[in-house]
């Protein structure tokens, strides 16, 4: 059941912070600010040097076992290209795995350990293949190649597909993606670029809070 609890936490959070940086210390600081701002699902990409150190540090600090706790967060690993990287990330403390593309061996390994995996897909064929492999949520990537209408288009023939657009999602169009049926959305550079430019990571907390509120309002508007 742990796997499905994690998936439910991602769906409830609605926004996944996709964090990249020049060091583990930098992405840990970014993560702390995102969590403080209300975005409590954190994806640390393995393009970060010594990314596993950051994942371990965050996983120890923020326990997802008690979602009521103020310091709870769900920590995952992104840019996973192969099963070896996925297993290393799990052992470092990652509670979910995100990949830029669909790799059968990686999906099989994650299923073996009952860890949620969200592989990147672009085509109907990839979505169907992912479903056949037992994938619960697919990352629609790069999201900036599509309009939100792509989700109901895909879910016409494949209504069981859960899609998380990543790339190109912003505060202006988040509501459109949620209205279109997105499972959640991934937010990367738009969350951190201003903070990095101004060397003020507190701006990440402010932006994260704006994203969290935008998601809650979008869900409210659906009712």
UniProtKB/TrEMBL annotation:
Its EC number is 4.1.2.14, 4.1.3.16. One of its GO terms (molecular function) is (R,S)-4-hydroxy-2-oxoglutarate aldolase activity. Pathway: Carbohydrate acid metabolism. It is an enzyme of class 4 (lyase). Homotrimer. Belongs to the KHG/KDPG aldolase family. This is Bifunctional 4-hydroxy-2-oxoglutarate aldolase/2-dehydro-3-deoxy-phosphogluconate aldolase. It comes from Paenibacillus psychroresistens. The gene is eda.
